[in-house]
Amino acid sequence: MAVDGKSEPLLIRVEDFEYHKGCPGCEIDRWKHDHAGIPYKSLMFVWIIVLAASLPISSLFPFLYFMIDDFHIAKREEDIGFYAGFVGSAFMLGRALTSIAWGTAADRYGRKPVIICGTVSVVIFNTLFGLSTNYWMAISSRFLLGSLCGVLGPMRAYASEVCRKEHQALGLSTISTAWGLGLIIGPAIGGFLAQPAEKYPYWFPQGSLFGRFPYFLPCLVISALALVAVVSCYWLPETLHKHGKHEKFDKTITVKVIPIESGKVQVSEPESPSCEQSLLRNWPLMSAIILYCVFQLHDTAYSEIFSLWATSPRTLGGLSFSTSDVGEVLAMSGFGLLLFQLILYPLVEKSLSPLNITRIGAALTILLLTTYPLIAQLSGLRLTLLINIASTFKNILSVLIVTGLCILQNRSVSQSQRGAANGISIAAMSAFKALGPIVGGSLLSWAESRLSASFLPGSWMIFFILNSIEFAGLVMTLKPFIALSADT
Asked: Is pTM, for the whole model, over 0.85?
């Protein structure tokens, strides 16, 4: 079009949008088609649900040392870490066995029913764990909680489906940040609220329910938050397409008119979706999942080790922290992670690709953990200050790595396979995370038994092995192992 003898660039987009009445997936697609903005309301509900599902995972770590001691199952103090590892692993073992089934159910019946089921299981079985009177009841309740809480995979699929492509990184970072905060705030709740009859006798007398069950209060608080998440599921819209398979994809015709002086008109029609390949043969997906498993093994072992190491006595190379001290460190880490997510993460995500975010996060983690044995030699204000800073940076780096790999996974599959793909990812990751507490607890017990060794004594060996796992993951981010989809 010419105005005053000048030509103007012109871009006209005409779309034939196929909409199926009554299909929730089509409703979401139409909403995204009509609204270019970020779906803040949906992401808020996503954040609440994921936070509630992640809180119980590591909330036990600050008091697990004392809980195992109260069960009187360990014959020596050095053996407490060994028994604690199996309780910590029970959740992940249960999740590893059922994640694929939950992902498949989410692809068949919808994301919302699976999400509701998972949050309800948190309310029930996390409460039962707080009421555990012996070692086997603790393991059983944690195993059932992990088996029935199949929230993470469907929520990842949901977050990528409720956002337009340009906002998918933000949607998945909402999942990663809520999950990361849950893994930090959960232990903070456990640290502050465990053994309330000893810490707050005025409010919780020794003869009260919380005096008889010293670890029930933190579990009750988390279960109450999960109940809020169950209620919020009412406003969570479904995103799965529910109509014939041959009708699942909308046909869009786009007409692009380039500046008039060029005299060119380009008409393009998107290709039909290709036949869906087997997920196990999708190497961009599988390579991202394998990487994810390695880094999650490291993070879970670190989480188990950090709380046990911090509460271990100085004579065994620990920090002699109380459960409240550990809670304070983890609460500060959570606050720092939240600030990073709100202020700095958008800038990082725009500047770096998901894979580069993962690489940088892994490299910095190795450097950071090398300083932990040195920090342990300090005391007083210097110890408190530096352990808070180190813990905050460690959790920020973990969330960066997880977010980058989640983006790679979700971009490597179509919507109809996303639930199953995330189910495979969660199942594999849970198997590795089930090993994490066992590896971490056993490693800590072994390291505390060799304080006088000439090569990497005590905590030096602990963090050397953690760094070795992280380094293996870093090496695997390089070609030719890692593969990228065309969409990445």
From this structure: no
